[in-house]
Amino acid sequence: MEPWILSGKISSQAREYGKTLCVPGARIVDIADKVEQKIIALGGKPAFPVDISLNTMAAHYCPFVDDPVIVQKGDLLKLDLGTHIEGHVTDTAVTIEVGGVDKYKKMREAVTAALKAAIDVVSPGVQVGKIGAAVEEVITGYGYNPIRNLCGHGVGLWEVHTKPTIPNYDNKDPTKLTEGQRIAIEPFVTDGEGMIKEGKPSGIYALINPKPVRLDGARKMIQHIMKEWKTLPFTVRWLKQFPNYQFLLNYLEKEQVISQYGQLPEKSGGLVTQEEHTIMVGTGVLTK
Ligand code: CO
Fold first, then answer.
1. Contact at 8 Å (CB) between 50 and 11?
2. 150 to each of 86, 209, 272, how far by Cα in Å?
């Protein structure tokens, strides 16, 4: 099967499997481990560590080693995951209201409708600002705000975030979609003001400059990162076999060999829903 297609199918199956794990009492670190193992069992590799962001956390909450957070009934849980097949990246996300609760059903429906409206606009030659306009119109129609400083993005070979930027509001960007381009569209809906701020360190890292370093253990860690993930994001949970892993990661971050992403909470403390699909322009949704 064509690698983009296969990557999308695996992301989709891993997402559907992950949804079944998001039940009251589950540990988020166990959900993340199991979804990543599922991606591997299906013949792919995680394109980035599974993120499980609860309630007012919009994105980039990646369970830490032995993370004590347990899913509670009523949590608004965003499960965001990606697969790559030899670097062919697909990215998908879904929101679950844990335990069959429907308190925020309207906010979940708003994001589903916004993503559908955005996908309906996609076609070669369409300006990306028009996708943002479609997202914004649906979300404001439901009485909520889109998160304006979180965007969809192109996905590429060994790249989770590449051009073009796909806005979640009408930013008038005239950049046109091209046939065969892969884009991830990910609207975020909130009952807050519609902005995220940079939160605490997430434990998600990416290699930025693999230069020689003094510490032997750190050199070994760089070699491991380059072999396993190249420039794709990775997390502390994937490096726990290294003695002193946190010390080495801190050292590599200080040496600017790797950089760390921050968690992304909604600025005003609003609740957040999100959905995401990867689309091949002119072909259709890869992560259906
Ligand atoms: Co994405």
1. no
2. 27, 26, 12
Q: Where do you find CATH 1.10.10.10 in the chain?
A: 201-262
* pTM for this entry: 0.97
CATH architecture of 201-262: Orthogonal Bundle (1.10)
Distance 250 CA to ligand 1 centre (A): 26
3-state SS assignment for residue 240? coil
Tell me, in angstroms, the distance from the centre of ligand 1 to residue 243's CA. Answer: 32
Per-residue pLDDT tens digits of the chain, which is 288 residues long: 799 999 999 999 999 999 999 999 999 999 999 999 999 999 999 999 999 999 999 999 999 999 999 999 999 999 999 999 999 999 999 999 999 999 999 999 999 999 999 999 999 999 999 999 999 999 999 999 999 999 999 999 999 999 999 999 999 999 999 999 999 999 999 999 999 999 999 999 999 999 999 999 999 999 999 999 999 999 999 999 999 999 999 999 999 999 999 999 999 999 999 999 999 999 999 999
Point out the residues that are catalytic: 80, 91, 153, 161, 186, 276
* Sign of the torsion formed by the C-alpha atoms of 66, 196, 80 and 54: positive
- CATH number listed for the domain at residues 3-198+264-285: 3.90.230.10
At 89, the amino acid letter reads V
Question: 143 CA to middle of ligand 1, Å?
Answer: 24
**Ligand 1 centroid distance, CA of 151 (Å):** 8
